[in-house]
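Exercise 3.2. Students should predict the tertiary structure of the chain below and write it as structure tokens, then compare their answer with the key that follows.

Predict this chain's 3D structure.
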Amino acid sequence: MLLVLCVDLDDDLGRKTGFSTPVIGRESVEEAAVALATADPEDSDVNVIFQGLHVYDDLEARDESVEVAVVTGTDGGDVEANRKVGQEVDTVLASLSTAEDVTTLLITDGAQDESVIPVIRSRVPIDGVNRVVVRQAQNLESMYYTIKQVLDDPETRGTVLIPLGILLLIYPLALIGSALEMPGFVLGTTSALLGLYLISRGLGLGDRLDSIVEQARRSLYAGRTTLLAYVVAATLLVLGGVSGVNTLESVEAVRGDLGAPVMLAAIVYGSIQWLAAAGITTSLGQITDEYIAGTLEWRYLNAPFYVLSIAIVLHAVSAFFLGEADVSYLAAALTGGTLLGIVSTLAFAILESWYTDRSGRHNAERV
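Answer key:
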């Protein structure tokens, strides 16, 4: 038996008509084709289904054993779509009541739908592929799909677009220092912009930026305090960096040339209080959001105390290297910072255990 299989990888049939798929049988497939043509006459999958019916009628007129069906994927991505097509092909094959070996003839509307061929071939032999595309648009569609695949594949776009973008940046760089005449300036600017765009696409910066913006937008509309905490923490980090550099300059003005350990100690000594404030701010913002969402756990409350403990230790060590503290202060700070972290861990672990046991007993009493 020959199975004429019409492939609609992005599920235009299901999304636009509400037909449940797979569609099996000549009458059902014709109803689906008419429904899709009525919903969207310009959809290329209409031609695919009608071509499948045409092939079915032609083979049936020759007294061949033939069946026609429509299988669809999803519009959620290639992997998910291919998986759904494979499941629907299994359903179609299981519905065929024949003792003959089944082979299939695929009807598609272009290169994109043909990407599912390996999935179908793993289930049933393929006798041929019939691509139904408007003749004037066939080469254009294939070229568009190829370019789209290159831009969507992270590995391919990285190896192709980044070198191409760098090459486009060479021309405007060669204009530096020469007379910027209008034609050269326009071409150089255009080449630079195009090169930067290709490099950004090759690195996927647009997708990352869109993800960050979308996450920030959701946090803003959801009333998440984490977003505000991050903004405040970023400001504190900048202030900490400025304070650390100022401290380093002050120490250099007094001592002259400094070694690397002393330079690092000066930067830490001048910035640690700001960095600690930034860490505590972000941790408190996260704790607040977890509490509002009802997912707060007791161990999360350790974060501010850990940040404070680390800040105490780093402040003492940097002060010792700068000669601002003696060994006694260093020992006391190291001990105090360590104890603070240990005590907070034990305290919140005990509270969590006590609260859990109490909640469990309360629930048992209610039962």
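Discussion points: The CA atoms of residues 320 and 326 lie 6 Å apart. DSSP finds 13 helices and five strands in the chain.
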